[in-house]
Amino acid sequence: MRDLKNIPDPNLLIGSASSDDAAVYRIDDETALVQTLDFFTPIVDDPYLFGQIAAANSLSDVYAMGGKPITAMNIVAMPLEHVSLDEINLILKGGADKVAEAGAVLAGGHTVQNAEPLYGLSVTGLVHPHRTIANSGAKTGDHLLLTKPLGTGIVGTAIKRGLASEELAKKAAQQMAALNTQGTALAQAGLTRAGTDVTGFGLLGHLSHMCRESGLTARLDASCIPAIDPAVMEFIREGCVPGGSKKNLQLAREFTTFNHSVSDEMQLLLADAQTSGGMLVAVHPDDVAQAKETLEYHHAITVAEIGILTHQETHAVIVS
Questions:
Q1: Averaged pLDDT, 201-219
Q2: Are 46 and 166 in contact (CB under 8 A)?
Q3: CB neighbours (10 Å) of residue 84?
Q4: CB atoms within 10 A of CB 238
Q5: pLDDT tens-digit profile of 96-112?
Q6: CA distances (Å), 20 to each of 35, 88, 261, in order?
Q7: Would you kindly state where each structural domain of the chain is located, as residue ranges?
Q8: Integer CA distances (angstroms), 288 to 80, 158, 190, in order
């Protein structure tokens, strides 16, 4: 994308330049479109559950901008010699059910044959032009709140190696399939000034985008950052870390200062690549209590206050 020539348009309120989760295009003074798409290969064996997780992940980008999804279209690429029509139908049913849960309409899609299975959605949402959540709006003193615990990438690797319990595998899948509707609720109530969802770049990567675009540094308290299960740290010690998470940490060390008390396991957890992770939002100190109440009311899996934003320093993120 960085090599493509952008056509200026004053109605494009948010585009690709700021590493935000979706594009926002103003229709009029009261309405803007939120547009996004995402798709990936199966991360669970159950085709219906895979469809749910992939759809939730795609819908999340609209919520991360403060929007409400209205329409979705299937993106389907399948190797028909390896995936049966019944399995494909279960994937699509999982996605359709999750779109319906979001209150949106599944309006169609496109299917091609491909060497490996891919599924996701193209999603359109609506947001008020002055109620969007972007990377760039955070201010000094804002508190950082997280709505889902970390570690799904590590658990996924543990599942593949036969180390994760059936109970933990189910817990991780349910978390990934949960919608991030809290983003819309916070935006409509005016309770967040900046935010993103935590996905492939891990917590540190997505937080660094917010810090860069807002001109700030984040100070994280590692003791306040939740893992999906205590077993995650043991999985890390046993080497159950996906390649993407290792690469994330390697990149994060260029913009992150870790206190000597922060363990290697915690560093990897903070960099763990998430699928359909939670919302990470910056909230004014006076609004923290109300924001937490709103998150709890809208069924956030966790409401963790993990740090604070300060004036810009040498590194974008400081973890202690």
A1: 97
A2: no
A3: 12
A4: 12
A5: 999 999 999 999 999 99
A6: 11, 31, 32
A7: 12-127, 135-319
A8: 50, 35, 12
b (16+ CB within 10 A) / e for 140-163: eebbbbbbbbbbbbbbbbbbeeee
Check residues 220 and 193 and name the one with the higher pLDDT.
220
Q: What phi-psi label fits residue 257: left (phi over 0), alpha (psi between -120 and 50 degrees) or beta?
A: beta
Q: How far is CA 160 from CA 44, 154, 167, 241, 294, in A?
A: 9, 10, 15, 11, 36
Q: Report the relative pairing of strands 216-220 and 317-319 from DSSP bridges.
A: parallel
- pTM for this prediction: 0.95
The CATH architecture that domain 135-319 belongs to is Alpha-Beta Complex (3.90)
Residue with tokens 């299975």: 117
SS (H, E, C) the chain: CCCCCCCCCCCEEECHHHCCCCEEEECCCCCEEEEEEEEECCCCCCHHHHHHHHHHHHHHHHHHCCCEEEEEEEEEEECCCCCCHHHHHHHHHHHHHHHHHCCCEEEEEEEEECCCCEEEEEEEEEECCCCCCCHHHCCCCCEEEECCCECHHHHHHHHHCCCCCHHHHHHHHHHHHCCCCHHHHHHHCCCCCEEEECCCCHHHHHHHHHHHHHCEEEEECHHHCCECCCHHHHHHHCCCCCHHHHHHHHHHCCCEEECCCCCHHHHHHHHCCCCCCCEEEEECHHHHHHHHHHHHHCCCCCCEEEEEEEECCCCCEEEC
d(CA 134, CA 22): 9
Q: What is the Cα 286 distance to its own chain's centre?
A: 25
Render pLDDT for 113-170 as a digit per residue (tens, 0 to 9). Answer: 999 999 999 999 999 999 999 999 999 999 999 999 999 999 999 999 999 999 999 9
CATH 3.10.450.50 fits 12-127, yes or no: no
* Nearest-angstrom CA–CA distance, 35 and 33: 6
